[in-house]
Structures are given as structure tokens and as C-alpha cells.
Prior knowledge:
This protein has strands at 25-33, 35-40, 43-49, 54-59, 66-72, 79-86, 91-93, 99-105, 128-129, 131-135, 154-157, 163-171. With 174 residues, the protein is mostly beta strands.
Amino acid sequence: xxxxxxxxxxxxxxxxxxxxxxxxxxxxxxxxxxxxxxxxxxxxxxxxxxxxxxxxxxxxxxxxxxxxxxxxxxxxxxxxxxxxxxxxxxxxxxxxxxxxxxxxxxxxxxxxxxxxxxxxxxxxxxxxxxxxxxxxxxxxxxxxxxxxxxxxxxxxxxxxxxxxxxxxxxxxxx
Length: 174
């Protein structure tokens, strides 16, 4: 019917269909080690805890479409893999173009994030580039059921392996 017009069908690695996406909507898929809070264009869209992958529906706004994630890992370095699937068929994944800011290392206290870090207009030019750990699907993590084979996402983290709280930013549109 009319509700399905402009939707694109997606399938995960198990062959299960994602719900169709209406025009102007996107799906954010995350695998974060270990706890996360997710923002799209400055609006909080969800949170979760590893090992579960999270699907968050978020309406695209404007032309920048920025994903911002606060990640914390109590047992090792904070890391993530992210993928945004747009209704028009574009798929954008986390990679070395994402920016990272380390808020805490080891057992040290957590520094407060810079004001507005989750918003598209924030200047992250002083932040470090993310470091790619592995492509999604590579060992030791594997693909996970939501990303599927050939996913463009990379597992990323800060270069400092003692970073247990990391803020990530990545542009995913238009």
C-alpha cells in the first residue's frame, strides 16, 4: 500500500527481512563494547549494553546526518561498529574517518565531554581519527546477525588501548 511506497527491503545475515524503511528514515545498527548511548543529529535515540546489537530507527534531518556515540568498556578498550542503512539504499559504516575523544583511561576518572559533542555543528577537528581494529565479519568478533555479509562497517576504537570511555562521531549522510 501507500505506507510501503519508497521503502527498500533489507535482509540480515540470517536472511530475515528488516522492516521496510519509509522515505526519509534510516536504521542505525550498533555493536558497542560494552555500554553505549547513541545520538543522531544531536537527538538521543537509544542506549544499550553488549553483546546485543541494537537497531535504532531515526528520522534523518538536515544534510549532515551525524552519529555520535558514548561508549564505555569496564574490562578493556571501548570499541564499536556502526552501520546506517538509508531508505534510498545507501549503506554507510564506521571507519577511520570517524573521530574519537578519550574521556577516561584505565582506572582514572572520567572527564566531562565537550559541550555539544553530539551535535552536527560541533567542531571535532581537534579529535583523533578512529583506529580500525577489524572489518565487521573478521575474527575475533564475526559478522553478527544484523550486519550481514559484506557490511561496510569496521570495528573502531581510540589509538590508546587503555581508553575505557570514548566518544565517537561519524558523518553518515546525505
